[in-house]
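I have been asked to look over a protein record a colleague put together. Alongside the sequence sits a line of tokens, each denoting a local backbone shape. Please read both lines and tell me whether the tokens look consistent with the sequence. I do not need a full report, just your reasoning and any doubts. I have pasted the whole thing underneath without changing anything.
>
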Amino acid sequence: MAARKKKVVKRKATKPAARRRGGRSRRRGSKRRSLGGLKWATGLLVLVALVVGGYALHLSQVVRVKFEGKRWAVPARVYARPLELYVGARVTPEQLQAELERLGYRKVKHPRQPAQWSRAGGRFLFHTRPFLFWDGD
């Protein structure tokens, strides 16, 4: 009888489970993963910054083109000698009366029309003129 040869199957040598899970190799892998994630996040942040910066430059150019020719399109109106009146303002009755007279307001008993005023002691009543703003309001 002929001798049969046994077929030998070689298996890869396996390391014991305790050695595979060694502390050093695991730490290296987690460091690599965290560095990879950090690089990815940094790259994404740089990309977003470039896109936002490019869009800001585009908007700046659009605004410049739209308004460059209209710089003096709105006529300027200068109203001299502004007088701020509010409760508690430090204006004497004589100063207010002089200002109303300079502005062409008429002294009457009861102001019912624009540009009319009256005075009773330190108390003034006046009807102001209408004012049109440059935009029509």
About this structure: The longest strand covers residues 116-120. The chain is about 45% helix and 10% strand.
